[in-house]
Specification:
- The two termini are 34 Å apart.
- The chain has a 4-stranded antiparallel β-sheet with strand order 3-26-25-24, with no helix packed on it. A 4-stranded antiparallel β-sheet has the order 4-5-6-7, with no helix packed on it. A 4-stranded antiparallel β-sheet has the order 8-9-10-11, with no helix packed on it.
- By secondary structure, the protein is an all-beta fold.
- The chain is built from no helices and 26 strands.
- It has a single domain, classed as Neuraminidase (6 Propeller), CATH 2.120.10.
- Strand 24 and strand 25 form a beta hairpin.
């Protein structure tokens, strides 16, 4: 929840206080608009992580927002907290080779903890909520590839940060779940139809949480929700949204350990949802998992980003790779390393 978040950075029993964070694992726009494709890797060549060397990069950002903008073929990053300059209101795009800072005529106020997803029905990136430095917001903005426009919906979800969001290609709406606000951890479900927000009334819902991970699973035509932070700590439950209600999937021996602030996005090249890293009371993770619509499987890539949490990931349909950016990594017992590296999975 907002203000101060207590995190166990290492499994040493010692604690580090960090600002609340992360948003964007909900930002997985490509999943809603890219049909499953033949895997780019041959059967003999499994996907792997590769560190990129862009000519320019955003600064290290905490709780920023990311989505793939299918209309322009670029990954978009907005906002976040910087280590030295406070909250950011900048917009960056990834063109498959390097990062470019954009200078739109209009931008949302600087913030962190917002949630963002590509809306294939309108061809725009949608951003909602977050923390603007003085209060938690409930404003809605759209990005058309050139500039930001504030929307004026007739109805909006209550103010929150740390929510999850994804485009549901089956219902042609953007789905928002949870987060934290004045009422604490939230478990409400809302949909955006390009004009206004509508609260859904599912017969079953996940427990309230913030900073979970969400992606649209094209293979199963459902929205996948994993983990997050609840009043009882980090959890590792798996839920799917079918456009009407939520369904909980059984916890098995092959499920990822509980975590929040993890990276997750649908990989159209392999028709699986990919989960990486995250944090829990036992410390940060550097593991890679895939979801095939029914089962989680831990992967064993030859190379991998180091253990981290609170970064960003989205599928870049233009390069047919997942793009991972930044996060926090353990440095020493009481310190963390702010990261701004870029990795791809494919």
């Amino acid at each position: 929840m907002r203000t101060t978040r207590i995190r166990r950075v290492l499994g040493s029993g010692r604690w580090r206080t960090l600002r609340a964070g992360a948003a964007a694992l909900a930002a997985v726009g490509a999943a809603g608009v890219v049909a499953p494709a033949v895997a780019s890797a041959s059967p003999q060549q499994a996907p792997n992580w590769t560190e990129q060397a862009p000519a320019a990069s955003p600064p290290a950002l905490l709780d920023a927002s990311m989505a793939y903008d299918a209309a322009t073929g670029k990954v978009v990053v907005f906002g976040g907290g910087t280590r030295s300059d406070g909250l950011s209101g900048h917009t960056w795009t990834w063109n498959g080779t390097t990062w470019i800072q954009n200078h739109p005529a209009t931008s949302p106020p600087a913030r962190d903890g917002a949630t963002m997803a590509y809306d294939a029905a309108t061809g725009t990136v949608v951003l909602f909520g977050g923390y603007n430095g003085s209060s938690i917001a409930n404003d809605t903005w759209t990005w058309n590839g050139t500039t930001w426009t504030q929307q004026q919906p007739a109805t909006s979800p209550p103010a929150r940060d740390g929510a999850t969001m994804a485009y549901d290609a089956a219902s042609h709406t953007v789905v928002l779940f949870g987060g934290s606000g004045a009422a604490g951890y939230l478990n409400d479900t809302w949909t955006w139809n390009g004009t206004t927000w509508t609260q859904q009334q599912p017969s079953a819902s996940p427990p309230g949480r913030d900073f979970g991970s969400m992606a649209f699973d094209v293979a199963s035509h459902t929205v996948l929700l994993f983990g997050g932070q609840t009043e009882h700590g980090s959890i590792g439950d798996t839920w799917t949204w079918n456009g009407t209600t939520w369904t909980k999937h059984p916890l098995t021996a092959t499920s990822p350990p509980g975590r929040d602030l993890a990276y997750m996005a649908y990989d159209a090249a392999t028709s699986t949802v990919v989960l990486f890293g995250g944090n829990s009371n036992g410390g940060p993770f550097d593991d890679t998992w895939t979801w095939d619509g029914t089962t989680w499987t831990e992967q064993d890539p030859a190379t991998s980003p180091g253990a981290r949490w609170d970064g960003l990931m989205a599928y870049d349909a233009a390069t047919r790779t997942l793009v991972l950016f930044g996060g926090l990594a353990p440095l020493q017992i009481y310190y963390v390393l702010y990261l701004n590296d870029t990795w791809t999975w494919g």
